[in-house]
Design a protein that fits this description.
The protein has 107 residues and is of the alpha+beta class. It has one helix spanning 2-33; strands at 36-39, 45-51, 58-65, 80-83, 92-95, 104-106. It starts with a helix and ends with a strand. The relative contact order is 0.12.
């Protein structure tokens, strides 16, 4: 009876350790995938979105502000920008290439 109880205690301890490891992994991933809001250039609002495995994380951002982001806003390809001043074909910009502040295309 004592052996069965000891075995059960060991299995419970092992299960608790596994659950703790899973929780730590989930917390780490959640931190990487959480939207981060911060102030960008010239009062531009930025929301960074993380995608990828726990080893690689690519950030794209959703940005808004006044004026064109071309030559001003640094972001990864795939990022979006909304010009709150707007205008025909000048409201939405897509970062189509690179990681510098160029490559923004008005849509």
């Amino acid at each position: 009876m004592n052996e069965d109880l000891d075995t059960l205690k060991q299995e419970i301890t092992s299960l608790k350790d596994t659950i703790t490891d899973i929780q730590k992994s989930m917390d780490s991933l959640k931190e990487k995938l959480t939207n981060h809001r911060h102030q960008g250039y010239d009062n531009t609002q930025v929301i960074d979105l993380g995608f990828g495995s726990t080893d690689t994380l690519t950030l794209v951002s959703l940005n808004y502000g006044e004026g064109s982001p071309e030559g001003v806003l640094t972001a990864n390809a795939g990022s979006l920008y909304v010009d709150t001043n707007g205008g025909a074909s000048l409201t939405l910009y897509v970062k189509e290439s690179g990681t510098s502040n160029t490559g923004w295309i008005a849509k």
